[in-house]
Amino acid sequence: MITYLASGNGKRQQLMQQLIPTAKAAIKTKVTEPRIVVGLSSCLAGHAVRYNGGHSQSRLCLNTLSDHFQFEIFCPEVAAGFGTPRPVMRLIGDPKNPVLTYSDNQQQNLTEKLVNAFNKPLETMGRLDGYILMKNSPSCGLERIKIYQANGSPHVQRGRGLFAAALKQKYSLMPIEEEGHLHDIRLYENFILRVYAHHRFRYEVATDPTLHKLIDFHSSYKYVLMAHDQGYYRSLGAMLAAAKSVPLEQLLEDYFQAFMTALAKPANAKNHSNVLQHILGYLKQGVSSSARQSIDEVIHRYRQGEVPLIVPLTLLKHYIEQEGTEYIRMQYYLQPYPDDLGLANRI
Ligand code: SF4
């Protein structure tokens, strides 16, 4: 099974194919970047494809995220021809290598039928920048899926649905989340931030890669990285400092792996406060000391949990628009995703 960051020439070539969009869709500027494409379990899109003939329509996906993402909808069980409605299915056997069967007929091994149905679509999913899956499904569930023993009781160890496991293995750096988790604001914010970062890396760097573009990209994500993981921020900087001794393809691969891993750790209020203070340091000239003092107090109130992130961020953005240098204005930290998602209002 191939992942984004598998080593070896053949595998690296496949990695590059996944990272680099087709020439037709390729663009070079932030302004004209194409719509972000995200995979979505069909039942979450409101399609009546569940085993019982119903759906699990997600208002978050359909009413909010659909303004920003183009969803690519897929139901592995329908693709496999199991029909709707269909008997309930479950995973049985070895938790490391479970088998899909009907709950009331465990003699029938349905694994191959399902895997054959999703393998081909899976090959095309390298163009996605994220995936939102339905929970509790032996096909789509990302975690805590029951795997039953021969005696009918579930193993203590839980697993993944078969499609979710294959998706995660093949595209290990793609942001993949269960829809249920997106109702937790920190996980939701982190997922959205990673989808945008994944997309930008592909379109700003991997489309037509040069070291210069990678350094520009890293510079524009400097404060996002600092807010998420200072250690990764430093090691990515060191990686770029030694860039000339590493083939570009290898560098891109190593960078992207470390970058996406760093962002997977949600930023906390302490790190956000440190970053806000750093940015405030850029406003020494042109902004009065009393204004800076007020911003400093608001940052402190954010760190104490008294105001959301949007408050110090908006203040800083106001002054940066007037007095900020080009370098600070280009920081994605100030707008890692569209403001109208309202995420900074809640963290
Ligand atoms: S959870 Fe997955 S397999 Fe089940 S109905 Fe939804 S899309 Fe289809």
Explain what this protein looks like in three dimensions:
By secondary structure, the chain is of the alpha/beta class. The chain has two domains: 9-183, no CATH class; 269-345, no CATH class. Helices cover 45% and strands 8% of the residues. The protein has a four-stranded parallel sheet with strand order 2-1-5-7. Strand 3 (89-92) and strand 4 form a beta hairpin. Helix 12 packs antiparallel against helix 13 (310-323). The chain is elongated. Residues 1-17 and 20-32 have low confidence and may be disordered. Iron/sulfur cluster is lined by residues 41-43, 49-50, 75-77, 134, 137, 139-140.
Read across the widest sheet, the strand sequence of neighbours is 2-1-5-7
Largest sheet: 4 strands, parallel
Can you tell me the residue ranges where pLDDT is under 50 for at least 5 consecutive residues? 1-17, 20-32
The assigned structural class equals alpha/beta
Percentage of residues in strands: 5-15%
Mean pLDDT: 91
Order of helices and strands: HEHEHEEHEEHEHHHHHHHHH
Radius of gyration: 22 Å
Count of domain modules: 2
Helix content: 40-55%
H/I helix tally:
14
**What spatial form do the alpha-carbon principal axes imply?**
elongated
Which compounds are bound in this model?
iron/sulfur cluster
- According to DSSP, the number of beta strands is 7
| Alpha carbon gap, first and last residue | 38 Å
